[in-house]
Amino acid sequence: MTETTERARRGPRGEYAKTGAKREAILAAALGVFAESGYRAGSLREIATRVGMSEAGLLHHFPNKEALLAAVLDRRDGDDLSRVHIIVDAEDGAETLRGLVELAAHNASVPGVVELYCTLSAEATSPDHPAHGYFLGRYDWARGMVGRAFERIARDGRLREGADPARAAIATLALMDGLQVQWLLNRDVVDMSEALREYFAGLVADF
Amino acid sequence: MTETTERARRGPRGEYAKTGAKREAILAAALGVFAESGYRAGSLREIATRVGMSEAGLLHHFPNKEALLAAVLDRRDGDDLSRVHIIVDAEDGAETLRGLVELAAHNASVPGVVELYCTLSAEATSPDHPAHGYFLGRYDWARGMVGRAFERIARDGRLREGADPARAAIATLALMDGLQVQWLLNRDVVDMSEALREYFAGLVADF
DNA sequence: GTCTATACATCGATAGAC
DNA sequence: GTCTATCGATGTATAGAC
Prior knowledge:
2 copies of one chain form a homodimer. Chain A has helices at about 5-10, 15-40, 45-50, 55-60, 65-90, 95-105, 110-125, 130-155, 165-185, 190-200.
């Protein structure tokens, strides 16, 4: 990115830097509210209250509710991508899968984020939801990423007989999502990373 | 059930029988609205419009919104239990699992019901959600039912080495739930029953 | 049994003072 | 940059006529 576009993104006087702290606080509060109530039922009022501002003050930083949701998802993607970017293109597919197990273990330490994606992904199955396109793209990307890992595993002759890389990728993501629902309902009965590890162990030789 | 309690449940003049048709219509409309928008964001107004009534007319049949949700879930449970009651106690555990594959195939023909449970289960992870207790009990029951099937399979020596019945049950339910999310987002890329069958095939000998 | 009318809360968003 | 004030829409629920 050139310095010109960088300055353009921040505006002529570096507005982001000035109001950065408030923006972060707003995004954190918005994440919590959207996680607990979803997008449609979550209110700007509740977000504003949590961050100690009026609604008008909040809407000075984000033009409207939809833009705020987009910003929350954007921010999470930045964090998550930096967490998994190492494992995406591992030459050993099993290394990528181990990264997913690690991700599941990490998720157990940030229940708010898990709640956010769990609630929003279900809500966003409706075609008219503001985040519908976001989740379509996210799952496409994830299926491709995990599918390629399984393809490398199959190439190395370590994928179980009869298993298909693309379908294994779908099942992997499904398992991760479904585990989150049960974990959010009752955190004592579910160990997300262990369940995922066992699934991989049944699918990949010497996992 | 004695005839006395039966009459008591219906009221002295058999109210249920008289208004049964309207109740059914309301429940069907409510299922659609709660499925598309969830409970919190779904409105009585929308339900009343779909069924061709006023809001006040609707609230003559159900005292409030929460009771309407409870009635919708009650009705679905009646239908679903009659569908799977045969397979719950099959002497052959694999027979129960095959019933689940069949259930997944059936679900693909009733997207509205899938949407309802997908949306509500995510929403109801919040402890203050009206359906929180319902889903806690539902998952407990389902984990026990599927877990016992896997135990019978293990007893018959058909469960894969190293697999645990209780954990397999958790993963099975998680897989079914997660497949529904991806299927609702994009029905072309996911075959729910086939994915479930492949999972069982990797876990149970000669499935 | 269904309606109109209405009460009353809460929502997203805007205008304009400071 | 944050506030108060306010608008118009929408939400649940109740009262009472028919």
